[in-house]
Amino acid sequence: MDFLTIIQVLDSTVRLATPLLLACLAGLFSERAGIFDIGLEGKMLMSAFFSAAVAAVTGSVWLGLLAGIAASLVLAGLHGLASITFRGNQLISGVAINFLAAGMTVLIAQDWFQQGGRTPSLIGGGRFGPIEWPLAESLREFPLIGPVYSELLSGHSILVYVAFLAVPATWWVLFRTRFGLRLRAVGENPAAVDTAGVSVVGLRYAAVAICGVLCGIAGAYLATALQAGFVKDMTAGRGFIALAALIFAKWRPWHAMGACLLFGLLQAIALRFQNIDLGGVVIPVQVMDALPYVLTVVILAGFVGKAIPPRAGGEPYVKER
Amino acid sequence: MDKMPQWADVVLIPLISLILAAILSALVILGIGEDPVAAVNMMVSGALGSTYGWGYTLYYATNFMFTGLAVAVAFHARLFNIGGEGQAMLGGLGVALVCLYVPWPHWSIALLAACGAAMLFGAIWAAIPAYLQARRGSHIVITTIMFNFIAAALLNYMLVNVMRPVGSMDPASARFAETVHLPTLHELLVPIGINFSKAAPANVSLLVAVLACVVVWALIWRTRLGYEIRAYGHSETGALYAGISPYKITMVAMLISGALAGLMAINNVMGEAERLVLNSTEGAGFIGIAVALMGRSHPFGVFLAAILFGFLYQGGAELALWTNIPRELIVVIQALVILFTGALDNMVRMPLEKIFLALRKGKA
């Protein structure tokens, strides 16, 4: 494997890790506030469809992004309604949201575009184009640093940079602001937050809304940057890989980036090489597919440090008994 | 004091949730420019109007009875087994291995062996998440989700690299021998003078599913183990105080749950496809969640809900065939049922409780 191949694999790692990272940070906000969310997948899918559909109709990818975020927020609101206001089971609500998105996207796509559950292919302004960094072309021939700069760092769509900038932003919000402190407290001990006179319901809705916005960006990235248009079930389990990454990272932002890059790398390798030959031992592609999930189970089993979720996660808060 | 009479809890709340889901589904159909009344008529005539339709409805219902029971048993121990899909896939692998590599003299013996293999494989697939929950405290919902994906990858590997016949491009196993063919409802009903459709896939597995409903009922409400499972589900600390081991109950409940989900394979793999194909489960493992929620985790409720979902599935297929409504309508209805009977249960329950309390005060 030569240097350029490695750079290309790493480049596609960044592209494939982006939706995982956005969804993972989305889950991070929600779960740190004590709301389990297995509906990341559904929110991404819904956003992917609406961003592609609006971008296809209006020709503006920015309107598409807004529509995607709005669609994802609607589902986030539903999740909040079920799990915060009506104190329902958060896991069941997440399952329902995933199915709702899987069904509604195809239903609406068929009604609007009559193309068997897909949107028309996006062209021109309907997609997020690559952003070339200054001097990327002239530095390309420079040994070692050239390809890293012009292939790996430059030339991604704006949402990729948004995703990676969201990591320090998430860290800062959660660990350096009053809002973040309260948000984490509400996920550990909501009664204490309530006693301090801060609204548990308000904080949890805020967390769920941030989760919705981030999932919306993730879905829009899938349909308008990574690919050109929506196809049925295009999230393909990414919401669950993001969930796995979140556990892998033990609910911490910087570790989340590491986990998403690792899982992105696995996807990139599986995409580029079908079966990997390691000196006589052939690793089938299915092993690469299953590896994120296997690693997560190993982490969950506590063999490599224990993953402890926020203490009040999954439990509705009842003010009075 | 109970806030509501029991009939309201068992009948009224699921009924209202179902009506809410139906109203929203009708609005969705209206929204995509189709006529809900015509759609319902077509679904009824397509799914229940002929023995062919009934054959498909009952075939789907058989799948959903197994997966619904699987979710229901776990629910009684307050465990959410979302991994029915993966367990059913593994059950399919077990059935395929038994049917392909053992020369069975008669289908009845093969069916017994296939049941055993399906239950064993499904139970094994549930055992690891159960163990991790019971001993390591890792959340069973997350681990069972992960095991669904691992099962899909494993099955993909087995079909592409191991079980695919030489020269075949299709990622599927070889066809099972003629001797393990399960009698369809047509073959079962002709001797007693009923001419059931020949083309429909409903088969003798339906009887196994009904039997499973009865056995699960007896297990949950008529045995010591069932009592322990329910006690554990109601209060873990209470059960612990009564000397019930949480480890044992978690393991046993999940093993039974996985075995039931795996058992589905005798219907879809052995009864219908007669070979193992990719995605043979077609999401039935997840529909089990909706079925168990709607059936209030009671085997009889699961039986009725499974038939309802069988009807929806076959009716939805007819709609997709004859109108512009895609099959995904069923996924939407399924989502709404899960939403209203599961997550938004309190939305229906709270106002009803208030009404019943007000009525009682009025009487007193």
Entry summary:
The complex is a heterodimer of chains A (321) and B (364). Chain A is mainly alpha-helical.
Please write out the topology.
The complex is a heterodimer of chains A (321) and B (364).
Chain A: H1 3-32, H2 40-58, H3 61-85, H4 90-113, H5 136-139, H6 145-153, H7 158-176, H8 178-188, H9 190-195, H10 200-226, H11 238-248, H12 253-272, E1 276-278, E2 281-283, H13 285-300
Antiparallel strand pairs in A: 1-2
Chain B: H1 6-31, H2 36-48, H3 51-76, H4 84-101, H5 107-136, H6 140-162, H7 185-189, H8 205-222, H9 224-234, H10 236-241, H11 246-263, H12 265-273, H13 284-294, H14 299-322, H15 329-343, H16 345-363
Main sheet properties of chain B: none
The total of helices of chain B stands at: 16
- Helix-strand topology string of chain A: HHHHHHHHHHHHEEH
* Helix proportion range of chain A: 55-70%
Gross geometry of chain A: globular
Beta-strand fraction estimate of chain A: under 5%
Count of distinct strands of chain B:
0
The largest contact between protein chains, plus residue counts on each side, is: A-B, 47 and 50 residues
Sheet with most strands of chain A: 2 strands, antiparallel
Oligomer: heterodimer
Average predicted confidence as pLDDT of chain A: 87
* Unreliably modeled segments of chain B: none
Number-wise, the strands of chain A total 2
* Helix content percent band of chain B: over 70%
